[in-house]
Amino acid sequence: MDPVGNDQSGMHGRTDSYGAAYRRLACTGGRCVGGKLTEDDAEDGRTRPPPVPSGADSTVDGSGSERLALFRYVTAENAEDYLAVMKLFSSTLLADLSAAEVSGALREAGRDMDPETAEERCRTLVRWGNLIRSLRDARVPTVAAYRNSRARFQMSTLGGRVHRQIEDILQATDGAREVARELLGSTVEVLDRILARLSAGESGETEALAADVTTVFNNQSLFSQSARDFYTYLGSVLTRYDLMGEEYTTLKGLLLEYVDLISNDVARHSPAIVDRLDRLERHLPLLVDTLATLPGLADSNSGPVERLPGRALDDWVQLSAWYTGGSGSSGPAQLRAAAEQALGQLITNAKRMLSSGGTGASRRADLLRLASLFAEADAGVADRAFAASFGAYPMRHLGIGAEEPDPRVTPTTSWWDAPPVEVPLSLRQRGDRSARGRSSRVPDPGLDRARLTAQGEQDASRLRAAVAELIAVREMNGAVLSDYAREVLLDYLGDFMAMHQAPGRGVEVAMPFEDVGMSLIVTHSPGRCTVLRSLSGEWDCTIDALTVRVEQIAGQQASGGPR
Which intervals of the chain are annotated as region Disordered (predicted)? Predict the structure, then answer.
């Protein structure tokens, strides 16, 4: 008795009646395939799509967007679950599993996944095209077993191919891949055997002929893929700026020895392969017709079939074009160009390391040492190390003396307010401190000398006029002066005060300035002042406790000597 009181003693004998009932229901509201029910038949009564031919993928068509969906499970959320499920389905041939079986197998492998989660992951993979619905066998011992196995899944054709590629990528290393260069010589030998069989008309050796054709194309595929991977790795390493020391030495040996070995093998065997392919060209129709007599999937009505390479004339045309170039560059020519480019980049790196005017050696080792210091130091030591390494001090301007563009910018001026420093173009863009281009011509100083002479004469003339104005006024208190005469008076008064800082009370002190023929007479008079007025009326200048008088030195005239 089951929990609801039904007798299950004859369940095994009545599975056929149950199957017949479900088949009737499936053919009216579900989908009937081969006399058995597919998943979700009769669960919702909806009409199912027409049956799919055996072996065809019902979820992925030939469009690019549908094919790209096959890769979603690698980067989607819960990608590890999807990878585990796909690995389980690809571990055996013709794997046909339900969600419960997937859950149990993963649990045995050490990964916990309940049946509900496993069914959700499988349904998602079906939607992306990696799995397909499987036919289920209605012959089950109990209703509970029937419900647990109502949804079964299989690996789709493209889903299996995608997962094998993903497994290869996950297991691959980041290092260099050896080039299968020895296959070139083997290809020549196999092409000789094919020519010998076709020339002798050995019709009974069709299987051996097919094996040789497959070997030729497999050799070519493996050689071209390994060469492409090797040169891709080589290009990624050569572009590194931190390539130094032992790593550079290893790469140099790799280039000078291994690349040269590959180039020599290609140069030795490529002409022989081209010669065999040219001789084989007139036998290709016979070869293709002979291979077509072998039993294969193309004879059945199972839909499109991906045939082995070498079974069509186009395959041989493409093989010949790889060695001869056809309408573009040939494979051997591309390999030679790649080797030359790699060698040129190696020489460029050597010049960079040996250049004394360049940016110097790589800082990779220093940065790794600094990173280890940061990893082991506490917060205080790390802060000090960062400040010392990267110059992260408070912003300040460093004065550079006479070459300072603006003398008003002092060492206390913030970098935020100071004008930027002009950095040479070669240093800013290329990190190169060495001078480039030709040396500039020495400028002719004649024009500058004439300009400076004219400017000096103009300044001397203005000074003579200002001194003559001061001598004519004589008493400075209440005098109306021009702007330049006031500047000259205050300038000479400053020189006087520097020499006579504390004149006595009421003492009159005279100081001659023979270069301009003028004498400045100053009297310390507390309570009195000297007021200078502007000729334009824009300013007044008051000198406290001093009376100032200007007189001409006897026997001299006002002149414009240098100040």
Answer: 34-63, 428-455
